[in-house]
Design brief:
16% strand; alpha/beta; 12 helices; single chain; two-stranded antiparallel ribbon; 8-stranded parallel beta barrel; 321 residues
Length: 321
């Protein structure tokens, strides 16, 4: 059995609003959609992150609100950029959400890519070409504060002295590493291997073929095993874009418009480029896609519906499972 997660539309809520009152109503729809996902049997809801490059609701604040409106559905970030913030604040905020939700939080973390993200890093004082190192030091501090293992840290980019947030997550709050970089011949770069070994409780990539995904999750579990941790406990998640419609063409048209609005710097994507990101078409096409990735080892699908009609996509998706 695989689990299915739903990515809340936290960016469109802000960008499509017209004035404060409309923005408030759209923001509240996140909780409405999360409740709908829980009632339909989705196992988790997720929220993306960006501060300036792609403005949206803050993911952890959003998930705190969702926690108050739901009963048991798991919560996650896909993908959080913790290195753009002070690590002590991120550790406190994430631990708070985990406690308020009764231990339902997972953190998917990554470094981000692209021209707008590079500008965002510069605006926030983070060197884009060293962002991987900044993320690793940030995770060192976050984990250390959660575990009570450190109160002082002296890194190249992150320093800490006599700090204690006074909070601990309810258990082992999972961190999913969102690495897009994996070569079937050479495996992961050294920095990604170290991130998985030191902090990874799971892998959460996008735009991987089933064959590449299978190789990537196997190699990640070998890294975890070599680090002395239990590889069978290492989670296998996959982020994907989905649109269900009567025809492949209609679904691709919706996805193309959505992606072009969401990532304007990318321009218009070809059908082939879009289909590397997920599945688009009638239920049979999407079902076959899910089966292939489940066979490749995916345990949790993190699904973003690449269209504006979120409620309809939620219903159609659950009907095909």
């Amino acid at each position: 059995m695989v689990d299915h997660g739903y990515v809340l539309p936290t960016r469109g809520i802000v960008l499509d609003s017209d004035g404060a009152q409309d923005q408030l109503a759209r923001t509240r729809s996140c909780s409405t959609l999360a409740r709908a996902a829980e009632s339909m049997g989705f196992e988790s809801v997720w929220a993306g992150d960006s501060v300036l490059a792609k403005p949206r609701l803050d993911p952890l604040s959003t998930l705190a609100a969702v926690a108050a409106e739901t009963d048991a559905i798991e919560l996650g970030t896909a993908i959080h950029l913790p290195h753009l913030r002070r690590p002590v604040a991120v550790a406190q905020q994430a631990a708070t959400v985990d406690l308020l939700s009764g231990g339902r939080l997972s953190l998917g973390v990554g470094v981000g890519s692209g021209a707008s993200v590079a500008t965002e890093h510069e605006q926030l004082g983070v060197p884009f070409d060293r962002r991987g190192r900044v993320l690793d030091e940030t995770l060192d501090v976050i984990r250390g504060l959660w575990d009570g293992a450190i109160d002082t840290y002296d890194g190249d980019f992150v320093t800490l002295e006599d700090a204690d947030i006074g909070l601990r997550p309810t258990g082992d709050l999972p961190i999913y590493v969102a690495s897009a970089t994996f070569d079937p011949r050479d495996g992961y770069p050294k920095q990604i291997r170290r991130r998985i070994a030191d902090h990874g409780d799971g892998w959460l990539p996008i735009s991987k073929s089933p064959e590449m995904y299978a190789g990537g999750i196997d190699r990640a579990r070998e890294i975890v095993d070599d680090a002395g941790r239990n590889p069978s406990a290492f989670g296998a998640a996959y982020y994907q874009d989905i649109v269900i419609d009567e025809t492949r063409e209609a679904a691709l048209d919706q996805a193309r418009d959505f992606i072009a609005a969401y990532y304007p710097e990318w321009g218009q994507m070809s059908d082939e480029q879009l289909e590397r990101r997920g599945a688009f078409g009638p239920p049979s096409v999407v079902a076959e896609h899910l089966e292939r990735y489940a066979d490749a080892g995916v345990e949790t699908f993190v699904t973003r519906f690449a269209t504006t009609d979120q409620h309809a996509q939620l219903r159609r998706f659950r009907e095909l499972l």
